[in-house]
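PT: before anyone asks, these are the final sequences, not the draft ones from last week. 1056 residues across everything. Please model them as a single complex and drop the result in this thread when it's through.
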Amino acid sequence: MGRKKEDTGAKDVDLGGGSGPGDGDDVWRWLTHGGIRPALTCVAVFAILVRAAVALHSYSGAGTPPKYGDFEAQRHWMEITVNLPPGEWYRNSSRNDLSYWGLDYPPLTAYQSYVHGLVLKFLDPSSVALFSSRGYETYLGKLLMRWTVLSSDVLVFFPAAFWFLSAYWVRGGRSRCEMAWHMAMVLFNPGLILIDHGHFQYNCISLGLTVGAVASILSQKDLIACVLFSLALNHKQMSAYFAPAFFCHLLGKSLQRNNPILEVLKLGIVVIGTFSIVWWPYLYSSDAILQVLSRLAPFERGIYEDYVANFWCATSILIKWKRLFTTPMLKVFSLTSTLSACLPSMIMQIYSPSSQGFLYALFNSSLSFYLFSFQVHEKSILLPLLPASLLAVDEPSLYKWFAYYALLSMFPLLLRDGLVLAYAALSGLFFLLHQTRWERRGARLAKSMTLYWISTKFSLCCGIGLHLVYLTVPPPEKYPFLFEALIMIFCFSHFVLLVAYAHKQQWALLKSSKSLKDSEKKSL
Amino acid sequence: MAPPRTPDAATTFLWQIGVATALKLLLIPSYHSTDLEVHRNWLAITGSLPLSDWYSPSSPGSNPSPWTLDYPPFFAYFQLLLSSAASAVDPIITHLHLGIDYKSSSVIFFQRCSVILADSLLFAGAYLVSRRMSGPARWTLWMLIVWSPMLIIVDHVHYQYNGFLLGWLLLSLWCLGEGRDLAGGILFAVLLCFKHLFAVAAPVYFVYLLRRCFVGKGGFMRGLGRLTVLGAAVVAVFASAFGPFVYYGKMNEVISRMFPFGRGLCHAYWAPNFWVFYILLDKFLSSVLRRLGFEISLPAASFTGGLVGDSSPFAVLPRITPLTTFIMVLLALSPCLIKAWSNPRPKLVARWIAYAYTCGFLFGWHVHEKAALHFVIPLAVVAVQSLEDAKHFFWLSIVSCYSLFPLLYQAQEYPIKVLLLLLSTILMFLGFSALFDTNKASEASKASALGKGGQSKKSKGDCAKKRGFAFGWTGRAYLLGIIIVELWGQFFHPYIFSNELPFVPLMMVSVYCAVGIAYSWLWQLRSILAFS
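LR: through. Structure below.
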């Protein structure tokens, strides 16, 4: 941990130098002068305010019949779950037309829709009336829907973030300013705010549950982590992007204990128990389970959709995957490539599980899944963005650049939703908040190579250029999706660079911890 | 005191502005009042009509919108400037007929952005007025002004240009504080030509500047010379504003637009001022007298009906005329004027001006609740000067921000206004405790350097406890009472009375806030008298 050690040392000196609040040109020092709690409250209140302000903007499919968008999908699920018995939720019937936004997330999402649907039914019954409520977009209806997301975020994601921070910062006695900054980085994740409170989804719940699971792993409560992560998986199956990291970290930890088999068994029982509780209404027959499962894995939709910045879509310009191969073959391809892409980080976690390595493994496995797995959506970039935000203190630049490219990769989608203004304001806000760390990283920045500086500035300008071109220039008639493809390839290439860098960093942890152990042995 | 780090400080100030601007941009699609349409029509009037017709009454042919220009000429010139940009963005915005109730995103985006840009004057004012302050005091003052929830609510949600106008006032305060009386006077004259409602502080300016002309170096003749220059400059400012209208012979139109005394004593929603108590007393007396068997005829236009009229709706108490309110404001101002005359100190002038606006708010004719901004923002400059002022400001700004809540009556903005108030409360608390706990700590360290021994240590501890940024139980109870009033208005009242007595929650807000603002007035009066 050579470099990191130096870092903490520098920070300690920095803290000792002028911790008086009077020296308050630095916003974080000023904010934390009275203790960490008011500072975190302040950050959290501002984060809620920003979310409430983003919720004023447009959403996916606003006023576009007949299919509308994600907003209508979520509302429709509330309508279905409130009015039909659980057995019918995933089944096509005269009362539940699965071709109109049929439920395609696991049961926990359905339960969440049910609870929210009950609230809506109480306050505005017509918003969830069966059939007649399709395309319901009244002032009150929209507002209540927005408030369900806001309340889910505040009730699930925020406590999880608090817990994560307290678990993360218990390790080292580093400065309070860093902790408050870290809080801001986790809560002002621009992608998450835009998709949940702008576009309209409930990622805050599944990601919040994942953050909770990470926090419990950091505080050595592995069984609770299993419960929370199983819940996350049962809210959105995409949480499986994190599964390799959780699996390998917990396996690695169990192997280091006295009785590995018993440990693994305990974890397995907890996972199976959680799953069976969540799936209870469908456990009466294998038919019902398969019915739900078939809804969750839409293999018929092809290996990629639209212009997602992953391997399959980027290489499809050269190799027409969809034409050359059948779907079963592509399934095998994507499975092997995904697993091999996250294999190095999995091996590292089994071999030497560590909290720090676990956070990198989360990032690596989720980004590998995004890049190589089957049927990835643009919005799935939120999954790797989450561990990047958790790693913000150790890898500030990684988080900054990754957030930048992740936002760019979602730009066409958000433009369609009419969220350009929110996009611009939130990106500005995020980079301003991120910026405040520069003062304390001055030394490292000065050391940075000019080549690195030039290349990052170059891609920054390219990214801004792509934004502007996409906004203003009409595409040539022959290639109507030229700019989408350019954005996709640009983001994809940077994602590959970042995932390679993160793998390197994760393995560097292993080396540094080894050399640390060696030196300890020698000194003994 | 830490040496001033100018470049650093400027960067952090810009950073604060950047973060606040991001929030303001996010608020663009929020609810806006008819003021947006009013200002749009002003863009159309100034952009499309010749100057001589700007203040003419609305007529179906040339000026069809009912929203006539009722701000002084400088604001009209400012609108003219904006309208040239607006017609480049979208020509319909400045069209007198097609533009009426134009709801396209271009007009909203343009007008909201113009407010955001015009706020730069507010920031310039805040930056300059804090130039000679210590690091933490500057930081706190900036935060008070940049994150003022009232400004965000009124300007960036409800829609107005108060930030821009208050920027002129802050610039004027800066000049007065530096002892540059001429520039301060000119800037205030400019402000009056932007919005004449700021004239409430004119008596203070007049007395202060008049006295200042004669206290400087040189004898009576030098003073007279200074007075002449100042007077000439102010006349020049007014001439440049009103000159063209005098030339066209349209001054009577300008005057009748600017002073619509046809409006009633109170606005539909009662601003939390003295007249609230007056109306309540009237209601109370009339009901008591009726119970006692007296014949009391109920007035036709009742205040609770929300009607605005020029008839006096009082049953028992004497009718209030604009002249009465004018005299009351002057009476309330007089102690401050005497102080300004006897000892015109630049350090105290911000306090006096804020006090003048408080008097205007409390006793004025047809006061709008938004006018609370006129004293809250100047008081922010005062607040960073001492612990007592900070406590007063903390308390007052919460009360007056809460009194603005009825402006945003729609459900969509409810979380936004509550969170804005909450955020600014936390920020104020952090700022003031950083500011005054350091002072306390440095005093404590000084004390410990001087004297030693257990006993002195203990008394010092007690002293420190008293001096920190904290509130007594009355202050806390009053602030908690706001929560109760709000909960009553939002939940219990609709639940218990359903649709009956719809005016009661609003009345409770204005009565409750009026108590607070009246207390603040007394407090300010006392603090002004205490300074000698």
